Each structure stands twice: as C-alpha cells, then as structure tokens.
Amino acid sequence: MATLREIRRRVVGVKNTQKITKAMKMVAAAKLRRNQESLVSTRPYARKINDLICHLVTKVDLSIHPLLEKRDVKRVLLVVIAGDRGMCGAFNGNVVKAAIDHIDQKYQDLLTDPDGVRIITIGKKPSDFFSKRKYNILTKHSGIFGNLDFNLSQMIIKQITDRYLKGDYDKVEVVYNEFKSVIQQKIVIEQVLPIPPQQIQDAGENRELTNVDYIYEPSVVEMIDELLPRHLDFQMWRILLESSTSEEGARMTAMNNATENATELIRDLTLIYNKERQASITKELLEIVSGAEALKKAS
Length: 299
Prior knowledge:
With 299 residues, this protein is α/β, with parallel strands linked by helices. It has helices spanning 4-57, 91-106, 124-131, 150-166, 197-205, 207-210, 220-298, and strands at 76-81, 117-122, 136-141, 171-181, 184-193. The protein contains 7 helices and 5 strands, in the order H-E-H-E-H-E-H-E-E-H-H-H. Helix 1 (4-57) packs across helix 5. The model has no long low-confidence stretch (mean pLDDT 84).
C-alpha cells in the first residue's frame, strides 16, 4: 500500500499534468478555429474549379494533355500527410496504417521494383516512420504546419507535377485525414494525377452542366491548360488544410479527454488519501487508548 506521502506526490503530479493538458487543449482550440475558417473558405473554390475541370475535359480527348491522359501504372507516388507532433490520439497512426494497407493491398506487385512505389511524406511523424523501414522515400517535408502557407503548397505540388511530367511515376495518390468535426476525422485516399476517370464520368453524367452549350473563349484546350495548374494548387492547399485542421481537432479532443481523466484520477487519489489518513488517525487513537488502559492496569 502506498504511503500518504507517495499519494500526495501522485496527486501533485497529476495536477501538474492536468494543467499542461488543459493549456494544450486551449491552444489546439485556437488553432482549430483559425484553420477551420481557412478550410471553410477554401473548400467551395476548390470544389468548383474541380467541377469545371471535369466538365471541360468531357469536351475534349484526354490525350491532349499529359496531366489528363491515363497511363499504364508501373510506378506510383504516394503522398502521406500527417502531423509534426504527437499528443493527438490515433491521428498519425491511422494515416500511416492506411498508407501501408493501401500499398499492400493494391501495389504489392510493384514492390519488386525499387522505384515501383515511391513516397513523399509531409509531417515529421510519417517521415520518421517510413525512414526506419524499407520504403523508397522521394522527399520529406517536416515542420511545415507551424507556418502553413499557400506558396509552400504550390512548391510541393509543382515538384510532384514536374516529376510526373518527366515520367518518374504514372499515378499520384494522397493519403490524409479529411476534417469532418472536432471528434471525427476521415481517412481519405485521393487520386490527384491524372484526374480520376470516375470524376470525369460523373461530370459527363451531370445534366445541369452538359446540357448547356457553353461558348468558351479563347478555347476549351487553352482553358484547360490555364486551369489545370490552378486546380492542382488549390487541391493540394485544401488537402493540407484538411490535414492540419483534423490534427488540431484530434489534439483538442485528446487533451480534453486527458484533462477529464486527470480530474477523475485526482478524485480517486484524494479519496484513497482520505481513507488512508483516516485509518492512520484511527490506528493512532487506538494505540493511545490501549496505552492509557495499560497504564491504568499497571498502577
């Protein structure tokens, strides 16, 4: 049984931890609110430009642009996006696990080629994980979420696009957490390049768009050439915001749970402390009474 001093020390230690988790919860809440505002303002634009691209490509042959043309998949690039820090529950672990499962289930036959499956990691946690294992890491981006900006997003997608155009890989997919709410984040595996055929098919079946005979100036092809880079820029920016917002939401939830657990633990330890203290006092009283009785009998 722990002594009263040990129990007091544990209570003090838990209270100090509780102060830290409460402060981290407040910081995560502030970052979450800021990131969520940016995400909400970005989603509609990214969605509309995606719809416009998908609508435009139904009017032309996909082979007119190398970013649209479907290739035989011999080499794949997987962009794994998670966090730079921990203390956010299973947020980082779920992304890494989803990426590994996706590789094992879909691209197991490509692993025989050293360049069959390449990985770009965004975030310190996935970078550390894949660096310690036998995966072909093309580039690592760590520490970007502390000061996330659009220019950095453009740089990342430009590097990916340039190597895709050179033929270094035939398909680009992104694994990340999509923000649903503070307590819910959804793992998404999204194809970035080339534009998924399903999206183009859905756009072609959308009567609201295809039944209208638009006149495009200067031309559909030139519009596609102009819009595709912007489309990729904003899709990557949206994905980074989704991941960053999800991370802060997961951290806020984890720290809130930790704070509540600390409160319960303090209550339980205080109860144990009071019981042990009462038992100690009762024992001392019994010893005093017994000693007094013994003195009476001796006299």
